[in-house]
Amino acid sequence: MMTLYDLTEEEMELYNLIESGEAIDLETGEIDAGVAEQLAFNKRDYEKKVDNIVCYIKSLDALAEGIKQEKEKLAKRQQSTNKKIESLKRYLDMNLKLIGRTEVVTARSRITYRNTSGSVEILDEKSIPEQYCSYERKISKSAISDALKHGIEVPGAKLNTEPKLQIN
């Protein structure tokens, strides 16, 4: 069986024959029977190929959705596990400090305290001076789209109105 690409190529060649008049009976004006038969045959194969590709796309779409859902479940599990880790670290820290221990060494682990350069705790974000703030530039595609649709030129952007393939 031919590929979709091959079927498309052959159909284009058949239509070119018809347009050029090579596949048309000059007396009757009808399309050559062999060409008409081949077009009908190609149409069946073409539609079957397209349908198979669409089914494969739907299958991949379902797989991608399943992966997305599993990823979300795993992210929640990871978040839960990270919270448990932090909770257990706080628990250890609290108990070690209560009895004044700074080090515990066992056959499988070693717990010590180390000096740090300090961590910043923000008490009131609104009070922080601007010089200590940074902002990320985010382009608003919806605002650009609205501007372009209203005839406003936006340097570095254009409105793409190409038809988009829709699979149902």
Task: List the topology elements.
Blueprint (H helix, E strand, L loop, with lengths): L3 H17 L12 H67 L3 E3 L4 E3 L28 H9 L19
Antiparallel strand pairs: 1-2
Helix pairs in contact: 1-2
Précis, in short:
The chain is mainly alpha-helical and 168 residues long.
Secondary-structure element series: HHEEH
Report the radius of gyration as a whole number of Å. 34 Å
Strand order of the largest sheet: 1-2
In round numbers, the mean pLDDT is: 91
The total count of helices amounts to 3
Largest sheet: 2 strands, antiparallel
Query: What is the overall shape?
Result: elongated
Low-confidence spans:
none
- Helix fraction, binned, reads 55-70%
Number of strands: 2
Structural class: mainly alpha
Quaternary: single chain
Distance between the termini: 25 Å
Indicate the proportion of strand residues.
Answer: under 5%
Written description of the protein model:
There is one protein chain. This protein has helices at residues 4-20, 33-99, 141-149, and strands spanning 103-105, 110-112. It is mainly alpha-helical and 168 residues long. It has a domain at 4-86. A two-stranded antiparallel ribbon has the order 1-2. A hairpin with a 4-residue loop joins strand 1 and strand 2 (110-112).
Q: Which features does this protein show?
A:
168 residues; two-stranded antiparallel sheet; mainly alpha
